[in-house]
Amino acid sequence: MDREKGKLGYLIPLIICFLLVTAVHLPAAERQALQPTLNSMDFYGYIEGAQRGDEVTVYDGQNVLCGRFVADKDGRYGFLHVYGDDKGTAVDEGADRNELLTFRLNGSSLAPVPQQELRWLGDGQKLRVDFISK
Q1: Does domain 32-133 have CATH number 2.60.200?
Q2: Within 13 Å of residue 109, how many CA atoms lie on the same side as its CB?
Q3: What pLDDT, in 10s, does the model give residues 2-11?
């Protein structure tokens, strides 16, 4: 029994170290949690090559994750809620009005068709945007 305790004694710290090193090496954007607010704008449309289960993420100009949607149909997404920043907090939870947005599919950049800048227009807005993978 003491021999088993000895094996576990070094195994647990080793596992903890592995988890910490793994978390530190993830890109900052992938470590972020989506922080929903009371302000959101919705996007929907088609994504060339997207499959059911693919993840669409949206980032604001400061690379803050402000939207996430898992596709439930091949080639389509939406309604994807993209959250605005809550001005009542010190934390940047999302986009400000007119802030440039970046869309990704499973971490890879998406390009809107036709080519255009996508911006957060304000609470309650809805916008159809189709994408192709870059």
Answers
A1: no
A2: 5
A3: 555 555 565 5
